[in-house]
Amino acid sequence: MLLHQNIRGLNHKNDEFSNFMPTKPPQVLCYSEHLLKSYQLDNVLIQSYNLGAKFCRNTFKNGGVCIYTND
Fold first, then answer.
1. Which of 9, 19, 25, 49 has the most other CB atoms within 10 Å of its CB?
2. What are the tens digits of pLDDT across the range 20-64?
3. Closest alpha carbon to 5 in 66, 61, 54, 55
4. Residues near 67 by Cβ (< 8 Å), separated by ≥ 6?
5. 3-state secondary structure 2-69
6. Rounded CA gap, 43 and 21, in Å?
7. Domain-wise residue ranges, the chain
8. Contact 35, 13 (CB under 8 A)
């Protein structure tokens, strides 16, 4: 199962997404518009998930995509 969400900012939303998770956790989480820089995204921890891939804009403001995979 895959969950995609346009989150418009990943910072400080982990608790919000923990409450939103379905009873059977998805194997892949894909978040668009995380609004973070690469080094910031490396420090975002989502319980039971590992950061598998990321894209962060360097020349434009906002945007970005990250993909987490279940342990």
1. 49
2. 666 788 999 999 999 999 999 999 888 889 999 999 988 887 889
3. 66
4. 28, 29, 30, 31, 51, 52, 53, 54
5. EEEEECCCCCCCHHHHHHHCCCCCCCEEEEECCCCCHHHHCCCCCCCEEEEEEECCCCCCCCCEEEEE
6. 21
7. 2-70
8. no
